[in-house]
Amino acid sequence: MLGPADDFLIHQTPEPVRYPLTSDRRFYDRYFFTGHACSSELFFMLGMGSYPNLGVIDAFASVAVGATQCTTRASRELGSDRMDTVNVGPFSVEVVEGLRRLRFSCHSERDAIAFDLEWIGAVPAFEEPPLFTRTLGRVLEQGTRFIQTGNWTGTLRVDDRRFELNAATAWGARDRSWGVRSIGLEREPRGIMQAHATNEQRTTLWIWSPMQFEHYSIHFSLGEYPSGEREIETVRRVASFARGGDVTVLGDAQHDLKFDSATRELQAGSSVSFRDADGERRVVRLFPLRRAYLRAGTGYGGPDDWRHGKYMGNPWVNTVRYDLGNDAVTARIGPTHVLCRMEMDNGDVGFGTFETQIFGAYPRYGFHS
Fold first, then answer.
1. What gap in Å lies between CA 131 and CA 179, rounded to an integer?
2. What φ, ψ does residue 174 adopt, rounded to 5°?
3. 3-class DSSP state for residue 213?
4. Are 85 and 102 in contact (CB under 8 A)?
5. What is the rounded distance in angstroms from the CA atom of residue 358 to the CA atom of residue 369?
6. CB 351 within 8 A of CB 340
């Protein structure tokens, strides 16, 4: 199936661009953004994903403001053109300048959320270590993901509330990933992986945090077992474009986190640390400002039955709302992206999302099952 992308010099296989190298139904290609106003006023997540082997492209916008998290999402058939990221319901993504500037919009008068936003990269995009997991002979995860912090300009409306965002105070982060991954998508039949409880073999503690400061960003990511053994440990400092954009690999990541014993939510008094390039240990204290819940109708799972890549007809648009003051509700839509003010012991102050979760037992923080 030929499409307009085939006229660009971008082929990676002998096939037309429409066809991925793998026929795995879980193959995806996705944008994911977070944004805030460096305050507790609002916190939002935006995403768009393409699923070529399912023939679907979908998008969502989820905004936590006041005591509610509201999510508008849409889906349509992918068609032949994988470069067509417009009119996914009311959503569109335009790459203005690759790895620097993108425009993400949701033009709607009847839906709960509408926006016209431009993303401006603050630091160069940089790759995480390659994603690869093989379980019981099957490739469970394989892909590439890059991280970037940046700034937002434009307008955002949630119901009758309107926000004007400017680059000085509207910050955020994005990850851009593609490959094979079992997140979202239509459910597969239960089989050998459930029989062998492979899900219980994953790391217990997960941390993913792009920390944005004025002239640089820190990417802090850990996947850790209760024993302290780590599957993932990534700490890097990336200088701003204005400061040259250099990437420095840091190490010796440590954490001292506080959790609510009932909800497992991150609490004030938490900190992380790492060894800087000069050998000095740097400590970053975390001050939670607001939470946005990853599974609040965004396609990542939870109580809602919509999943990324699920065929919903052509086209489909829908809005759901969640009461963030109801513990029974929030318990079902975690983990959270916690918007934090981040104070480093050298006096630098930044902001960013701190995504963390404890799955099962982790005795160090008081969780035994």
1. 9
2. -145, 150
3. coil
4. no
5. 10
6. yes
What is the pairing mode between strands 138-158 and 171-180?
Answer: antiparallel
Given a contact cutoff of 8 angstroms between Cβ atoms, the answer to whether 186 and 311 are in contact is yes
Phi and psi at residue 170, to the nearest 5° = -105, 100
Residue with structure tokens 């995504």? Answer: 355
Amino acid code (one letter) for 200: E
Closest by CA to 149, choosing from 121, 118, 176, 177, is 121
Residue extents of the structural domains in the chain? 27-187+198-365
Structure tokens at 10: 């971008």
- Which amino acid is it at 202? R
Q: What is the spatial distance between Cα 180 and Cα 247, in angstroms, rounded to a whole number?
A: 27
Residue-wise pLDDT for 219-278, tens only, equals 999 999 999 999 999 999 999 999 999 999 999 999 999 999 999 999 999 999 999 999
Residues of the chain with pLDDT under 70: 184-189, 193, 197-202
CA 218 – CA 107 distance, rounded (Å): 33
Per residue in 236-248, pLDDT (tens digit) is: 999 999 999 999 9
Residue type, 221: S
d(CA 260, CA 366): 10
Burial code of 282-296, b = ≥16 C-beta within 10 A, e = fewer?
bebbbebbbbbbbbb
- The pLDDT tens digits of the residues spanning 348-360 come to 999 999 999 998 9
Q: Quick count: other Cβ atoms within 10 Å of Cβ 37?
A: 23
pLDDT tens-digit readout, 323-350: 999 999 999 998 899 999 999 999 999 9
Q: How does DSSP classify residue 331?
A: H
**Top-level CATH class of 27-187+198-365?**
mainly beta
- Contact criterion met (CB below 8 Å) for 61 and 33: no
Calpha distance 68→79 (Å, rounded) = 35
